[in-house]
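Duplicate of #3305? Posting structure anyway:
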């Protein structure tokens, strides 16, 4: 398995993954005309984030998005994992673990980064189990949000 930064020409895989993920996890139909430029914007402006992909046998098996949060308490950047998706054909094969461990190694190898966070739908018990197996704590913070409609 190979984990690396995604290339702009691979945006089509990430777009399809996000459409599938929204349908699977929240029964939401994303508008391809909105998500396509949204994904492309990340490739055009790295300050928005970085996509990573995991390849298995030359096929893109999964992806995630990293975004950034400055922590004044820690004087460092927290990397947020978002938009996680593993293709159904590759689930249970350690794809997310490989992606996560790659990000964790980036944090461990840098004085700039100080941690990893992600949010998960509380009803997504499969994802919660995976994250907790990797040593993430889901007990400390809750998340509140307001999204303009």
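Output from current build:
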């Amino acid at each position: 398995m190979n984990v690396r930064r995604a290339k702009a020409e691979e945006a089509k895989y990430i777009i399809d993954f996000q459409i599938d993920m929204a349908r699977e996890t929240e029964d939401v139909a994303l508008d391809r005309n909105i998500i396509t430029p949204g994904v492309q914007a990340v490739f055009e402006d790295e300050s928005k984030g970085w996509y990573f992909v995991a390849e298995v046998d030359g096929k893109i098996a999964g992806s995630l998005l990293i975004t950034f949060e400055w922590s004044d308490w820690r004087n460092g950047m927290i990397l947020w994992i978002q938009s996680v998706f593993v293709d159904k054909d590759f689930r249970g094969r350690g794809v997310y673990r490989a992606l996560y461990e790659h990000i964790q190694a980036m944090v461990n190898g840098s004085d700039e980064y100080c941690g990893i966070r992600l949010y998960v739908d509380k009803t997504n018990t499969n994802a919660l189990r995976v994250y907790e197996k990797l040593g993430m704590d889901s007990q400390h913070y809750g998340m509140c949000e307001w999204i303009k409609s």
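Confirmed duplicate; merging threads. The chain has one domain: 2-133. The CA atoms of residues 9 and 43 lie 9 Å apart.
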